[in-house]
Design a protein that fits this description.
four-stranded antiparallel beta sheet; Serine Threonine Protein Phosphatase 5, Tetratricopeptide repeat; 16 helices; disordered N terminus; 36 strands; alpha+beta; single chain; 3 domains; 31% strand; Potassium Channel Kv1.1, Chain A; Neuraminidase
Length: 595
């Protein structure tokens, strides 16, 4: 019976060279060079394994294997023996490991793979187990999927199904060209691949073609599997033309036909797509990441960084500006579902704008939607699951050589279902540069700068509006006056971070104090302050992996930070660059390697 615990997942792709089509030589770059020579006159131990005998050096065996390290320790009787016998493994497996002990390499083929795994597990050589898993995934999984899963289970290698599906996805465009690919591909592997959320460099339409081609490779035997396979094809990611060309064998399956009809509605109703949240409408490999956008005049939304919660480092992607015809830098933003909306800002004449654009992370493009009722800039914007809200701001106009600014109190709501804006109850007074959040049917607005000449500095005002009716109601004021801050709902609390504060118009500075409002007790509480060396915090934040992510600028350089609300701790993240001011969380599909 195999021994040992579950093996950890392979961290990096191992280095190997092909000896033949089916034999790989794996090389451990970190293997400590051994000065002793195999079978030289200094060998001080003989080993009998099955019918074979080997000679080796105790110190080499002890260095390479925890098993031998324990055997030749001070308290073990084998320490003084000149010959030992090992019954639990085969000579072929031990021979392969002995070569690795001395040279840092091992050759693996379908003929010796189980012997190598058996010996590595028994002798506690983790690196050999890792490369054995790699070999199983690369060279045996497509033709012998069940056998690979059996070996992984028997020798406690862990669940390799995800690794096998990932390998299939990463190499699918090459593998489908092999003559026996469809013949050798098992139903279990194909089904598991479709179930997993694996990044693939091909469209969902091509994935569907692969499913149909696999069935037609042996139609009489495989036709019965078609409904179960199609259940995991993402019909919402097909083009409308592809849906129109679906064969009868697909449409004759009632459950699939229903999904196709829903996919048609999804595609044809562009404005409501943000209301669909199933993974069926996401590309394969989509994962929740911080999407950090450069909003300078030069970049204007075309350079984006992605930051995965589970993978250190940042990926950068340069996008086409297609569909985006506004200055991103001065717009306000919010998300519904997996779509980013930006609105307002300035037009090309530096007058306030009422334009609304939506970013689709699936295709990395923008589309313009119904404009705001009121042109506005420097306004608060937030969202519910089904609507956008625009609150206050400034209407900036130019009349010849004269500028005019009107501080707004108007509030409006956009519903994708109707693709239109409608007015809500206005604020008690005009204000701009506020923060807003939506929680449980109510809008909350805090801070900003008022149109009231008595209050020309940042406010600590705090109001609530029930969206389904009524007027704005005052709530306990914030502990600190501030503008340009963020306000984030987290577990029944509103977390307020950053912004600027002042006691008079001449002393505006970064607000280092942060605070939290309890929606149940209606009380404000001081929370962890911002360290001064972080610099200015930008107003757009979002939540990733339970932590509030925000951007801060120090000496013109932008960095990501995370506020852990449970621990009350601000954690440093990564360096971004000089032009990044906006962050949001979206489900994005991109390769594991940096773009």
């Amino acid at each position: 019976m195999a021994s040992g615990g579950m093996m950890e997942k392979i961290s990096d792709d191992p280095e190997f060279i092909y000896m033949t089509d089916n034999t790989l030589k794996y090389i451990n770059k970190n293997h400590k060079k051994v000065m002793a020579k195999m079978y030289d006159y200094k060998c001080d131990i003989k080993l009998k394994v099955g019918d074979a005998k080997f000679k080796a050096h105790k110190d080499v065996l002890s260095e390479a294997s925890d098993y031998f390290g324990a055997m030749f320790s001070v308290d073990m009787r084998e320490r003084e023996q000149k010959e030992i016998e090992i019954f639990e493994i085969s000579p072929h497996g031990f021979s392969a490991l002995l070569d690795y002990f001395y040279h840092g390499r091992v050759s693996i083929s379908p003929d010796n793979i189980e012997d190598v795994i058996e010996a590595a597990r028994f002798l506690h050589v983790e690196w050999i187990l890792e490369v054995s898993c790699d070999f199983l995934v690369r060279h045996l999984s497509l033709e012998n999927y069940d056998t690979v899963l059996h070996l992984a289970d028997f020798y406690s290698l862990g669940d390799l199904r995800w690794d096998i599906s990932r390998f299939l996805g990463e190499n699918l465009t090459t593998l489908i060209e092999e003559p026996r690919f469809y013949q050798n591909l098992s139903f279990e592997l194909l089904l598991n691949f479709l179930k997993e959320n694996i990044y693939v460099e091909m469209s969902e339409g091509y994935i569907l073609k692969i499913v149909l081609d696999w069935v037609h490779e042996n139609y009489d035997a495989r036709q019965k599997y078609l409904p179960r396979l199609l259940e995991h094809v993402r019909m919402g990611m097909l083009e409308l033309e592809e849906l129109d060309r679906l064969p009868d064998e697909v449409l004759d399956i009632p459950e699939v036909s229903k999904e196709v009809d829903e996919a048609r509605r999804y595609i044809c109703s562009m404005t409501t797509q943000s209301l669909y949240t199933s993974k069926k409408y996401l590309p394969r490999g989509s994962r929740k990441v911080l999407t950090i956008m450069a909003a300078s005049e030069e970049a204007n939304g075309t350079i984006v960084l992605y930051r995965d919660a589970k993978t250190p480092g940042i990926c950068q992607e340069e996008l086409s500006p297609r569909g985006l015809d506004t200055e991103v830098e001065f717009t306000s933003q919010a998300t519904i579902g997996n779509f980013l909306y930006i609105a307002g800002g300035y037009d090309h004449q530096y007058c306030s704008s009422n334009r609304l654009f939506r970013f689709d992370p699936r295709y990395r493009d923008w589309v313009e939607l119904t404009p705001l009722l009121q042109k506005r800039v420097s306004f608060a914007m937030c969202s519910s699951d089904t609507a956008l809200f625009a609150i206050g701001g400034i209407h900036h106009m130019i009349h010849g050589e004269d500028d005019e600014e009107i501080i707004l109190s108007s509030v409006e709501m956009y519903e994708p279902e109707e693709n239109c804006w409608k007015p809500l109850s206005p604020l008690p007074h005009g204000s701009y540069d506020q923060a807003a959040a939506f929680v449980s049917g109510s809008l909350y607005v805090s801070g900003g700068i008022s149109s009231d000449p008595v209050d020309p500095v940042p406010l600590n005002y705090f109001y609530r509006l029930k969206v389904d009716g009524g007027t704005w109601q005052p709530l306990p004021s914030m502990l600190h006056n501030r503008q340009g801050h963020s306000m984030t709902p987290v577990n029944g609390k509103l977390i307020v971070i950053g912004g600027r504060t002042a006691h008079d118009v001449a002393t505006i500075s970064d607000c280092l104090a942060n605070e939290m409002y309890d929606l149940a007790t209606h009380q404000w509480t001081e929370i962890t302050p911002t360290p001064p060396d972080i610099g200015h915090i930008f107003r757009y934040v979002d939540i990733l992996d339970g932590k509030i992510a925000f951007l801060a600028s120090h000496d013109g350089h932008q960095y990501i930070y995370f506020y852990d609300t449970e621990k009350g701790k601000i954690e440093p993240g990564d360096y971004c660059g000089r032009e990044y001011t906006r962050v949001t969380t979206l489900q994005v599909s991109y390769p594991s390697a940096q773009i």
